[in-house]
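User: Can you predict the 3D structure for this chain?
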Amino acid sequence: MPAIHSTRIERLDRLERVLPRGTASVQSCLEGARLLAILGDAYPGENEKARRRALQRDLDELVKTGRIEAVNPGGKPLRYRRLLDEPDENPKVWQYTLRQIRDLVAEALPARRLDRLWHRLLAEIDEPILDETRVRILPDTLRLQPVELYPEVLGAVIEALAKQRSLKVLYEDARSVRGEAILHPQALIQRGPIPYLFALKNDESEPVRLYALHRMIRAEAVMEECARAAEGFDLDRAIAGGQADFGQGETIDLELRVRGYLAGVLGVCSLAPGQRIEDEPPDSEFDLRVSARVPSTGQLLRWLLGAGDNVEVLAPVELRCVMAAQTAKMALLYPESV
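Assistant: Here is the predicted structure, written as structure tokens:
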């Protein structure tokens, strides 16, 4: 029987939206147990068996009405994905989609924000023509596993930030001391594997502090209390000022000698606008000499150390001394290998 109750209609729509799109591989498609874990609140029941039956009825109806399909018929467990009309079946829709793509490209390329372009192509195009089976964004450094979070905490933080409401939290600091506080969310950042919330605390008008979400034991959006806005707070300025350890820092004139893979990378991906590259002499152990004005940050130091013997810092002298000290300390850890 077709769905006629508004609550079930909403549930069917939600179930359809959580499934991966059209061309997703079998491995990336979702099966019943995973769907119940994601949509648990949509399928309340006296026991797990009743919840599974309710989910299966919804899946069967979506299959019957041509909205989703089982990608491994006869398999156990069955896995499902959404069915989408191909954009070129509707020329007007396809034309509009292409215009959206061109607009996003026009915005991203001058600023060289390709990372933002890929995310927007995957998330913002009305009739998606690309999905994660055909576009994947990979880090160029070791990627740590994301920190574990309480689902209720993450949901409450997002809700409070989106609705501009205060947030009541139980927080455990780095010394394992717990305390309750009312936070007034300003912005959220993901720094490496850990998300952080910029927020005012209790009745304070300043400073805006960073709170790691994995240290929140409990969180609840206080819907009857609007969050106070921090005067003059700007996320870009906060990041540039170093609050997230990604600040601009002091600008230095960096001079390097590079070789190997790094010579190829810096030849096409500059350290900064105005970067200068010269060939090293034929008898040099290095390939290129690279000069650029860059911010002196922890990020820069970690990047230089990560390049190993493919880079030599020539200037500034202070940074060269830091590199010498750090590499000497590293060498002491491996005396038997030297």
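The chain has four domains: 6-82, 88-138, 151-240, 250-335. The chain has a mean pLDDT of 85.
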